[in-house]
Design brief:
mainly alpha
């Protein structure tokens, strides 16, 4: 199943953790950044907010602009690197490339 392989590749690449808003109201120069961690917390200089609660949910079931996903594993790393490079330079790649560098 290419969907399962794609999911596993992307899931392993995720870094960080959840971003949780503990304060729903902020004021510039009043709200302190990480005031729960540091006694000398700095005031917030600028506030920019986005509401993207359902953005990911509405797009997750749609196909990529290039069509259905495809996972290709190459045994020869030199061949894989050359093919990835040529595909990227030709502007024919829409997606992700995972490279292991030894």
């Amino acid at each position: 199943m290419p969907e399962e392989a794609s999911y596993k590749h992307l899931k392993v690449a995720v870094s960080g953790g959840p971003s949780i808003a503990f304060t729903h109201y902020h004021d510039v120069e009043v709200t302190k950044i990480r005031s729960h961690q540091y006694a000398a917390a700095k005031p917030c200089k600028r506030i920019l907010g986005y509401d993207a609660d359902a953005l990911y949910l509405s797009t997750v079931m749609k196909d990529m602009p290039c069509g259905k996903e495809k996972v290709t594993d190459y045994k020869d790393p030199v061949e894989a690197a050359q093919l990835a490079r040529n595909t990227i330079l030709a502007g024919e790649l829409c997606g992700f490339v995972k490279c292991l560098i030894n």
